[in-house]
Amino acid sequence: MKYSRVILKPKKEESLLRFHPWIFSGAIQSIEGKPDEGDIVEVYGANQRFLAIGHYQIGSIAIRVLSFEQTNIDNDFWQQRLQAAYTLRLSLGLAGVKNNNTYRLVHGEGDNLPGLIIDVYSHTAVLQAHSVGMHYARHQIAEALTRVLGGALQHIYYKSETTLPFKANLDSENGYLYGGEVEEDIAMENGLKFYVDRQKGQKTGFFVDQRDNRTLLEHYAKDRSVLNMFCYTGGFSFYAMRGGAGLVHSVDSSSKAILLTKKNVELNFPNDTRHEAYTEDAFKYLEKMGHNYNLIVLDPPAFAKHKNVLRNALQGYRKLNAIAFEKIQPGGILFTFSCSQVVSKENFRLAVFSAAAQSGRSVRILHQLTQPADHPVNIYHPEGEYLKGLVLYVE
Predict the structure, then answer these.
(1) Rounded CA gap, 134 and 80, in Å?
(2) Helix (H, G, I), strand (E, B) or coil at 248
(3) Where in the chain is CATH 3.40.50.150?
(4) Given a cut of 70, is residue 59 above it in pLDDT?
(5) Average predicted confidence (pLDDT) for the chain
(6) How crowded is residue 345: how many other Cβ atoms within 10 Å of its Cβ?
(7) CATH classification for the domain delimited by 207-394, as one of 3.40.50.150, 3.40.718.10, 3.40.50.720, 3.90.25.10
(8) Range(s) for CATH 2.30.130.10 in the chain?
(9) Which of 41, 83, 193, 367 could lock 391 by a disulfide, CB 3.0 to 4.6 Å apart?
(10) Residues of CATH 3.30.750.80 domain(s) within the chain?
(11) pTM, to two decimals
(12) Taking the C-alpha atoms of 284, 285, 286 and 288 in order, what is their torsion angle to the nearest 10 degrees?
């Protein structure tokens, strides 16, 4: 198959020789052919040496690399990449096990498929494209996915309306690529059940990336009074309850999220009076609450999606954590997170440290947290490490 050729400027191939999967527009000398956004292009150095093949796109990141070998991006390519991703999840003990049918199958650059996310919930896979190229390949990917997962897969739901580049004008609609519509799916994570709102919920319907951190919280929850801020579907809440928490309060500004949290808690702990949920702005709730909690979870949505708002985001993290340090009981434990990719581990830690100093409390780090193994970070693409977390003991 003949693809358009992208020629790089002299000395601009160095990042590709280190296997970084992005090519920026400023590195391009010329283009042979007229590729549209989402087309596959081959990349060559100024000396005409082949370097990579990938999806062409408009913007700062001009090409997302699919392979550093000269190959056809065809049905066999998609199946091989998906099979490699699935084999990893099997080896991690996340796929094909009795008490867990929820995991991330494809994590973009971490699985050498930049621009693609696939989460599995029971018999349903939710496919999400973050690039035009992956959007155009969605049917090929879905077909390959059915071959890799076989009978374990009954439905593929495509959910990319909010993740595709706005300027591409693709008029993409969410919907099923494979199998009929699912009325209501109940997924399982570490033996706990939850409803997945794949159609209207955030991300692909559940925050799979907090699995290990929820498990850690469960071990600290016994007899504690727990506050789960930005609770969304209540994941930390029902883990805390299984861990023996004395009470659990879940807070989110979204009434839909609170309804889902209540459903999930009831699904696992019917008629349990330890749990209450509140629809309220996080900062307002924290400001007015008393010193009622000795375990607090702060897992806010991304405060910064672009570098131009980084400063405001860091101020937000400082303010949020400062209130928690002020209100948490002596001997309390704070789980605090940032999922903003543009907020570095160092910047997040500095924001939390500043908040601790402001409170005047004695604070110790118990754990430094990150994303789980089914959200792997490509060693050549450190930008993929987006989830940062700290577990702190507050005297």
Answers:
(1) 16
(2) strand
(3) 207-394
(4) yes
(5) 93
(6) 15
(7) 3.40.50.150
(8) 4-67
(9) 367
(10) 75-189
(11) 0.93
(12) 80
CATH code for the part of the protein at 75-189: 3.30.750.80
Q: Please provide the CATH number assigned to the domain covering 4-67.
A: 2.30.130.10
Q: Where are the alpha helices (DSSP H) in the chain?
A: 14-17, 75-91, 132-136, 138-149, 211-220, 235-242, 255-268, 282-288, 310-327, 345-359
Amino acid at 73: I
Structure tokens belonging to residue 183:
């009325």
Neighbours of 250 (CB within 10 A): 30
Q: Tell which residue, 55, 62, 58, 56, has the closest CA to residue 12.
A: 62
Q: What is the DSSP string of 139-168?
A: HHHHHHHHHHHGGG--EEEE--TTTS-GGG
**Tell me, what's the pLDDT at 198?**
73
Please report the sign of the dihedral spanned by the C-alpha atoms of residue 162, residue 163, residue 166, residue 170: negative
Average pLDDT over residues 52-67: 96
As given in the structure block, the two tokens for residue 359 are 């409170």
98's tokens: 């009795």
Q: Are 250 and 228 in contact (CB under 8 A)?
A: yes
Question: Does the structure show a pLDDT above 70 at 306?
Answer: no
